[in-house]
Amino acid sequence: MPQLVVTFDCPDRPGIVHAITGGIVAAGGNIAELQQFSSPDTGHFFTRIEVDGADRVRLTDAIARATEEFSARFRVDDAGRPTRTLILASKAGHCLNDLLFRWRGGDLPIDVVGIMANHAVLAPMAAFYDVPFKHRFVTAETKAAFEAEIQKFVVDNDIELVVLARYMQILSPELCEFLAGRAINIHHSFLPGFKGANPYRQAHTRGVKLIGATAHFVTSDLDEGPIIEQNVVRVDHSMDVAKLVRKGQAQESQTLAEAVRLFAEHRVIVDGDRTIVFR
Amino acid sequence: MPQLVVTFDCPDRPGIVHAITGGIVAAGGNIAELQQFSSPDTGHFFTRIEVDGADRVRLTDAIARATEEFSARFRVDDAGRPTRTLILASKAGHCLNDLLFRWRGGDLPIDVVGIMANHAVLAPMAAFYDVPFKHRFVTAETKAAFEAEIQKFVVDNDIELVVLARYMQILSPELCEFLAGRAINIHHSFLPGFKGANPYRQAHTRGVKLIGATAHFVTSDLDEGPIIEQNVVRVDHSMDVAKLVRKGQAQESQTLAEAVRLFAEHRVIVDGDRTIVFR
Amino acid sequence: MPQLVVTFDCPDRPGIVHAITGGIVAAGGNIAELQQFSSPDTGHFFTRIEVDGADRVRLTDAIARATEEFSARFRVDDAGRPTRTLILASKAGHCLNDLLFRWRGGDLPIDVVGIMANHAVLAPMAAFYDVPFKHRFVTAETKAAFEAEIQKFVVDNDIELVVLARYMQILSPELCEFLAGRAINIHHSFLPGFKGANPYRQAHTRGVKLIGATAHFVTSDLDEGPIIEQNVVRVDHSMDVAKLVRKGQAQESQTLAEAVRLFAEHRVIVDGDRTIVFR
Amino acid sequence: MPQLVVTFDCPDRPGIVHAITGGIVAAGGNIAELQQFSSPDTGHFFTRIEVDGADRVRLTDAIARATEEFSARFRVDDAGRPTRTLILASKAGHCLNDLLFRWRGGDLPIDVVGIMANHAVLAPMAAFYDVPFKHRFVTAETKAAFEAEIQKFVVDNDIELVVLARYMQILSPELCEFLAGRAINIHHSFLPGFKGANPYRQAHTRGVKLIGATAHFVTSDLDEGPIIEQNVVRVDHSMDVAKLVRKGQAQESQTLAEAVRLFAEHRVIVDGDRTIVFR
């Protein structure tokens, strides 16, 4: 039987782990990995458990019965099932290339169902990896229509994750709302420093000694969504903006790929404005 | 009631977490943090649990009853209780200074009961921090006697942890055996590279671009004990051995302090030749 | 003859390095290390040169003659001469302890001439390291007087560097002006994120995955002075503010010590709002 | 006029920088960047200078005249000229993909003239990037013939750099000799730890807390060539060998790409068993 992943959260109180693990025992499962966190900020309990040797339906049932009293949200998924993913892109291909290569190499547990872009330049890359690619130049006039297409694609294809791989458009509040908790953006700075446009130029002007990248959930509050992953790299006075960009792109690709992996493995849970990441 | 820390290990099989958490529920405790690992290499199960709201004796009892069938080793300790510690040193004071300062500042949950050294040079530092200091110049003739003193000090003072803070003597196999699992050494290289003497000179000769430090349990197999913590720092061609030493010492202090903290918080467990570290 | 360090800057144009090195040759010196940077942002030329085998007075003279035409500022100093330093502190001792230990161990090329603080708590540490310590509780009423004392101390003792080792007072614009280019502060965040008070609390609230420290020159524009050095360390959701503080303090000590070393070795030059750092 | 890069080395003695810069002045050039290092280990002088505003032939001539007395090796090259590169590969595509994408994106100053492999699996990737691909299954019998083809390709195509992008064959001493100083390998460990085969398995067994990658020049002494670049990443007890491999591959790609860039920008110079890297 394939390994299962249980994610579970509810208001914190005594006895939760014992109840859940009671469900696991009842379903004949064995715990391969268990992580747990009780948030002092929100008074909420979170856990992620990998279970061997149990049937998914039976385990779901057993946990539901064992934890009835806790008003929990929980989910049992096959550990190996790839997350159905839509990627949004513009012109810069470094993040897209990295995601596609890792996916094809079996290194990311996702299934890239489509790519949508506001420029055509990355079409050959999509073709090489054999992924449907749709582009439409986005203007004030066409934006709503394109966002409707994105929304339709998500619905029609059971998309679970939308990745903004340096998609240089701001999503409308409606689309943000629609994608809440399932859209990840890569911002090319170490947030909260250097929000908005041209962060590498801002970093050069300020003369920082480290630059970075931040993967976060998309919210309508630009560059303010819950942070999933961040990385930095050392820079010095001799580097102009172009060199900062080049240095930073490696961080962007890697940070985004790591955030996607964490999400696809059900390791990221939103807790208010912050994330819990069970590594 | 103070927070308690449970560490527990036994041969892996289904039902262990459920059983332990049953004991916690029975003792009226609430789980603040739970980490668990089943080692595929040794087939052993390990967990570390922080429990609020329970009495230590009652919890110990309840877990013992609930897990009878598992032939487990386990221990319940007050989370805040400082670990009784003896530090061994030679001439270099950077690690000793760092440990003493952190301890006095309440940053390390240890109690430094004594310092023993094979040189007198660090006596004023010990005096400043008001710690008994004993030194004896160690030669082939005096080594056995000094080691007997160390052993006696450990026994007489209920020492739980012996820290070799750049103690430049090789311990006898007998003393290693006596201190097994409770002595931590800091080696001034990124093991397994550059074992033995003068690792910074070896690093310079080899022309590595990163140097590091390794904190590990002491075993009679020199520089081969289970690794607890490692760090590195970037270096370049222009640095001579003296500069590598200076760069490396900051890593040594920090790496050793982190390893001591992890140990004192019951976060380090030996699993064969490796360690499990519940951060 | 001791090694000399030349720092030299002027508006950029062809022929500068040739002219300076002509002076070095004329003085019988040999170049051990030469670093150079022409700032595209300010059109200014900067260099730092270590010279062996030359007399200081003679070299100064020779460079002055050889570079007359460039309207340069330059300085020739003994490489080994310790920088005369005043440290300002409050209650937190981790940075002070680190600086004093490194200084006494010969690891920082400074001479700590005095410590001034707005609390008495660090007096014993100053006494242990045998450094004059002056404290005065700073209020709105006493601030001007204490700043006058600081200024007098700097003048009377030929202080070259003032280090704010977690000195929790904002300096007046007048004192900032007086200390321009020779006062280094450590800020307990990765600037420009989390300026002002309680950066660790801000970091916790924002849910960042890395926290950091920034050493910068003091200017009257709070937390905006030219950055000298920055470091970060990984954190996660489970760490409360107290744990972030503890994690961050190691970064603060190390970052400040590195900035002090770079300054004392004449490796830091202000270029507008940024610094050039010749490592 | 395009920017030029001068690399120059000779036995160390006074006056070298002055002489070279005299040549630069004579050729009407301006120094954009100058780095210099005198190796105490080998008594050799090294410099790398970026020069604006000068003609290549005229500058070469002027430097030759100005530095006649120093028995130097030196070279003047167009800063922007791409380094003619041959890549050797086997089955693993992560390094190859990274190099090809960076090259096509203008991020690496190389020209990938060909790819030779001992497996066919990466042929489609080569085709996508439109690079001639040749594969031949290498056995004891065919090895000499394939190495002869490599050698011929290098000669026929004026190859300046051969990159072993996880090429899983040991080169013969003859080929190593032929490619001395112009072949870069990526080793999947933090050398000198874990030489030879299966370094990730070795790392798992030893229980290290950081794993890494090392880019080095190829020599006939396996895994012992001068190191160009190294990186590490943190790992923990829960990661099996497969996860270490996945974690490590990101380091391999990035470390190799950085080494290739440094080489192509004439920033790497061999100094005995070590490298000087002018960043």
Describe this structure in words.
Four copies of one chain form a homotetramer. The first copy, chain A, is of the alpha/beta class and 279 residues long. Chain A folds into two domains: 4-78, Alpha-Beta Plaits; 83-277, Rossmann fold (3-Layer(aba) Sandwich), CATH 3.40.50.170. Chain A has eight helices and 13 strands. In chain A, the strands form three sheets. In chain A, strands 7-6-5-8-9-10-11 form a seven-stranded mixed beta sheet, sandwiched between helices. In chain A, α3 runs parallel beside α8. The A-C interface holds A 37, 39-40, 190-194, 205-210, 212, 226-232, 236-238, 240, 271, 273-277, 279 and C 37, 39-40, 190-194, 205-210, 212, 226-232, 236-238, 240, 271, 273-277, 279.
Summarize the structure.
Chains A, B, C, D: Pfam families: ACT (PF01842), Formyl_trans_N (PF00551). Chain A is α/β, with parallel strands linked by helices.
Set down the secondary structure blueprint.
Four copies of one chain form a homotetramer.
Chain A: E1 4-11, H1 16-26, E2 30-39, E3 44-52, H2 56-66, E4 73-78, E5 83-89, H3 94-104, E6 110-117, H4 123-128, E7 133-135, H5 143-156, E8 161-164, H6 173-178, E9 183-187, H7 199-206, E10 210-217, E11 227-234, H8 241-264, E12 268-271, E13 274-277
Parallel strand pairs in A: 5-6, 5-8, 6-7, 8-9
Antiparallel strand pairs in A: 1-3, 1-4, 2-3, 9-10, 10-11, 12-13
Helix pairs in contact in A: 1-2, 3-8, 7-8
